[in-house]
Amino acid sequence: MRIHSSFTKALAVSAVALMSLTACGGSDGGSETSASAGGDDLGLVTAGTLTVCSDIPYKPFEYEENGEYTGFDMDMVGEIAKAMDLKLAIKDVGFDGLQSGVVLASGQCDMGASAMTITPEREKKLAFTDGYYDSEQSLLVPKGSDIKSIDDLAGKKVGVQQGTTGEKYTRENAPKDAKIKAYPSDAEIFPALQSKGVDAVLQDLPVNLEHTQGDKFEIVAKFKTDEQYGFAVKKDGGEALLKELDAKLAELRDNGKYDELYDKYFSTK
Prior knowledge:
Largest sheet: 5 strands, mixed
Distance between the termini: 11 Å
Strand content: 25-35%
GO molecular function: ligand-gated monoatomic ion channel activity
Protein name: Glutamine ABC transporter, periplasmic glutamine-binding protein (TC 3.A.1.3.2)
Pfam family, one: SBP_bac_3
Number of helices: 9
Number of strands: 13
Low-confidence stretches: 1-37
Keywords: Signal
Number of domains: 2
Order of helices and strands: EEEEHEHHEHEEEHEHEHEEHH
Domain Solute-binding protein family 3/N-terminal: 49-269
CATH architecture of the largest domain: 3-Layer(aba) Sandwich
């Protein structure tokens, strides 16, 4: 059964990389869309450019490959920028600053695309597009581990990403004597599991699936949490951009591009 999903990360404002891609829009200058006029009425940080903040890496949603940013989120925002006749710029920031609304409110970027789950708490500080991916949580352990369920985490060390729904789920459902260790991102969590700094990792299913490819780790439990990812814009003043993003998301679904990108990253065929 196909599942369409969402995610999160920590610590703001370490903007280390900026990538600009020129969209392949029409060149006849007669476009009637607001975006083709540089997006002036969308309140963009930089006229003519859709600036997107993301916490990278978070494979398969956002990561770097051959010097370029790629992944499901990155390809999606690339298609959205192209449809809006805008260039695309990517900024790598900490997830905590992104999900707290600080990065967007301070004008560092126009939107956030970082596998971010839509939650009531986040909706107090951010405005979200329609959901574009439905996610589950999962428990990753080394093969041969005696941990088979969340109940087996009693007395064990479990790694989570700080500020995420995975951390929240773990704190609410793991045994009271489980030792929960929160890390800024998956870039620190998985090495901790590899080095036996933690006994298990509980986080979004698509990310943990990436770590099973080497045949040394396995997912022993999945948890349905009814999570849905959304792209985020600033709470106040982002209304026009939000409307445009939702319209472009709908177009990607209608023209088949969404399914094409989904299959590229998540198909099990």
